[in-house]
Amino acid sequence: MTQAYEAVIGIEVHVELKTNTKIFCHSTTEFGGDPNHHTCPVCLGLPGTLPVLNKKVVEYAVRAGLALNCQIANFSKFDRKNYYYPDLPKNYQISQYDLPIAQHGYLDIEVDGQTKRIGITRLHMEEDAGKLVHQGSIVSTPYSLVDYNRTGVPLIEIVSEPDMRSPEEARAYVEKLRAVIQYTGVSDCRMEEGSLRCDVNVSVRPPGRQEFGTKTEIKNLNSFRALQKAVAFEIERQIGVLESGGRIIQETRTWDEARGITVSLRSKEEAHDYRYFPDPDLVPLVLDSQWIEFIRESLPELPDQRRARYIREYGLPAYDASILTLTKEMSDYFEEVLQHYNMPKAVSNWMMGEMARLLNANGLEITQCKITPGRLAALLKLIDQGTISGKIAKTVFEEMFANGKDPETIVQEKGLVQISDAGALAAVVEEVMAANPKSVQDYLGGKTQAIGFLVGQVMKATRGKANPDLVNKLLRERLQK
């Protein structure tokens, strides 16, 4: 970023809560289904219907608020946010305005080894709107269809303070927020299904100036990659406008992934008056302090706590602990492997190395991995037992990843058992030394690194099945003679 400017970034995150039914009715919250089939007269806003608050939504909102270090309100209320849009059947959204259920929280993030605290202004409950299904991209569609299945699905909206200063900090904040919410169990936070969505407010200003610049809002970013790239582009776009003598317009923009740019959707130059007022069909929400404390005591181990435990109890480096606790699924997988094979660093190395490589290459989550924790543990035991080498283990791992077979079966089927017979390997060592006299002379002349080439030739001759430690030992003994 140009040093003459500083970015100011705030993020609003909408999280769908993992309840069985919607916030004010009994319609299912199940993802998918035929359009407009997960609906009822209440969530469609038909005349004469009345909302009834789902208690589980309140419990989940309190759990999330406590996990985000918020103050939970004993008294809050629901309000009507009035606006017209095709996906809003009542022409108002039931939300919370001046008295939200949670306020004044924070999250600590880490970027480039530096820890920074990001304030959370508020967390409130609301109902989701429907979904416009565009026939093409949002900026080029000739028409759009409306699916009301999502209408009334319970949401919490989490509004940050404008404390972030870079695309990297914005991404770290949302990644950390997603992890915390996942650990609480109140949402699956699947961005690809829309259960976690981000709206990012971006402005720039000269460093040291207290006043904010004019902000733009980037709507509905649904991946960490898109979030980081969109924020980076928008910062540079605004700097370019200002340096060319232009003026930033307050507007809503969208991210065009294909072109790698943000695109204007609509102006927000005029203040939008939503005419909030208390919802007359819902009584104020009064929470008992003992119930709030009961929920606090029931919170599970959260990412920061688990990360600290991995460092303290398992002796893992801080980097390993951070990666392994970034998602609850990854962390739970790691812990289950340890139940079968209690060597934390070895397990961490394989999960962050071969497993991460194959998951990323195939666009999969760890929950979709065919290798069970028990079978990964079994593979590592085969290495320890000397049945296979580390190099062969990578071949076996790839086979396991592809078909889910247990490692013992793959080793036997493909004849990959490591050769640890000193007599058999001694003969191969003699052949390799005879075939490579220059390397032998180099080693004897003081170039000790030449032994690496000879080891490689023995491994090649045995198709990687020789025990590398034994090969090293035999070569050194033979060369010293």
UniProtKB/TrEMBL annotation:
InterPro entries: Asn/Gln-tRNA_amidoTrfase_suB/E (IPR017959), Asn/Gln-tRNA_Trfase_suB/E_cat (IPR006075), Asn/Gln_amidotransferase (IPR018027), Asn/Gln_tRNA_amidoTrase-B-like (IPR003789), GatB (IPR004413), GatB_C_1 (IPR042114), GatB_Yqey_C_2 (IPR023168), Gln-tRNA_amidoTrfase_suB_CS (IPR017958). Its EC number is 6.3.5.-. The gene is gatB. Allows the formation of correctly charged Asn-tRNA(Asn) or Gln-tRNA(Gln) through the transamidation of misacylated Asp-tRNA(Asn) or Glu-tRNA(Gln) in organisms which lack either or both of asparaginyl-tRNA or glutaminyl-tRNA synthetases. The reaction takes place in the presence of glutamine and ATP through an activated phospho-Asp-tRNA(Asn) or phospho-Glu-tRNA(Gln). GO terms for biological process: glutaminyl-tRNAGln biosynthesis via transamidation; translation. It catalyses: L-aspartyl-tRNA(Asn) + L-glutamine + ATP + H2O = L-asparaginyl-tRNA(Asn) + L-glutamate + ADP + phosphate + 2 H(+); L-glutamyl-tRNA(Gln) + L-glutamine + ATP + H2O = L-glutaminyl-tRNA(Gln) + L-glutamate + ADP + phosphate + H(+). One of its GO terms (molecular function) is ATP binding. It is an enzyme of class 6 (ligase). Heterotrimer of A, B and C subunits. It comes from the Bacteria. Residues 332-479 form the Asn/Gln amidotransferase domain. Keywords: ATP-binding, Ligase, Nucleotide-binding, Protein biosynthesis, Transferase. This is Aspartyl/glutamyl-tRNA(Asn/Gln) amidotransferase subunit B. Belongs to the GatB/GatE family. GatB subfamily. NCBIfam families: gatB, PRK05477.1-2, PRK05477.1-4, PRK05477.1-5.
